[in-house]
Amino acid sequence: MSDFTSYMNAALEEAEAAASRGEVPVGAVVVDAAGRIIGSGGNETRALSDPTAHAEVLAIRRACARIGSERLIGCSIWVTLEPCPMCAAAIGFARCHALHFGASDPKSGGVDHGPQVFNAASAHHVPEVYRGASEHQCAMLLRDFFAKKRTLS
Amino acid sequence: MSDFTSYMNAALEEAEAAASRGEVPVGAVVVDAAGRIIGSGGNETRALSDPTAHAEVLAIRRACARIGSERLIGCSIWVTLEPCPMCAAAIGFARCHALHFGASDPKSGGVDHGPQVFNAASAHHVPEVYRGASEHQCAMLLRDFFAKKRTLS
Question: pTM for this structure?
Answer without folding.
Answer: 0.96
